[in-house]
Amino acid sequence: MRKTGLSLLLCGMLLTVGWGGNASAFGSVATNGLQLSEGISGKAIKELGVAASVSKLKNLVSSEDLVPQIIEAAAPSVVGIIGKSSGEHSSGPDDRYNLTHGSGIIIKSNGWIITNAHVIKDLQNVVVVTSDAKKYSITESYADEYSDLALIKINAKSLKPAKFASAAVDPLVGEKVIAIGTPISFSLRNSATVGVISGLDRKVDAAYRLIQSDTAINPGNSGGPLLNMKGEVLGINSLKYSAVGVENMGFAIPTETVQYIMNQLFKYGEVKRPSLGMELEESWSAIVGIPTGDPLTVTKVDTASARKSGITEGDVLYSIDGHRVTSLIDINELFKSYVPGATVRLLMQSDGDIIVRKLVLGQGDPLMSVEDSGADGDEQPEE
């Protein structure tokens, strides 16, 4: 049996609840077994009535009360995924305990599940376990490594699909969120943690922008949902920062990107992305995260279409169809609404002249930076 080397730290919190009519040491007023903050005076209570005051308090803590209900409702839509890795980290066929696992989200009642591509990559003898402890094998799978998303299918019926948040409703920084997944050990399936959204539109070692949260995310949570307080999936947990002194910095792929990739995989079995047919380099400011309007520099022209448009190495790109682009992720996000074969207008600078070039988009891999725009020093994203 392999020892984990983990220790458990139990942290206690003393909660004081007043049951009498006197103010506590913290200046609170207790009424009918509920402790009211000092911001609500005794006079206000008399004017509004005890019933109205209690109702307001219930509204203040309603989001807290919803957490167990949300977890109970969402848990049946979350699965655990485990198998034997045949990739570079495999230690040989004889080590039956050297397994890799992650999480997934049921999206259709007939067995379709969305997860991270890195969860199922090089995985053999895969077992999918639902919340009711039933085991299934994968019958179909489609992966897109660039977005780190994959679709898998199991032979099951009457599963409970998760609810996805509308792409039209933007999450807010500070909004409470819940993560459900399979951290560290496969025996810890359907573990839940609570936190808040720490940031949006993060450009961190990914092809598309991510949601940052301080919800505890650990290896094995990959592929599981990040839920809002309506029980809707805001994103799919994908990676985290892991280093000494770094705490609770997890990242999730937003619903809008998930829907885009799912639609492509269901329709084509792959993601048909438009391509500019050139390699681009971000400015120093964009790489380190300083706000900038600096353009992208062409470092290589890869296709005949791009060469035919007159694009050469050393040219700089300011905008595509009037949309300013300063990073490679800007282009990937913009191209969600484009298809291969479309014609775009590029505002560029060539030999000192500002010009507009027309380019027919090809099909190919997305533009991804080789630089890690979010890491510094020894801090590295962990899947």
UniProtKB/TrEMBL annotation:
One of its GO terms (biological process) is proteolysis. InterPro entries: Chloro_Bact_Ser_Proteases, PDZ_sf, Peptidase_S1_PA, Peptidase_S1_PA_chymotrypsin, Peptidase_S1C. Keywords: Hydrolase, Protease, Serine protease, Signal. Residues 1-25 form the signal peptide. Coiled coil: none annotated. Pfam families: Trypsin_2 (PF13365). The keyword Protease applies. It comes from the Bacteria. One of its GO terms (molecular function) is serine-type endopeptidase activity. Belongs to the peptidase S1C family. This is Trypsin-like serine protease.
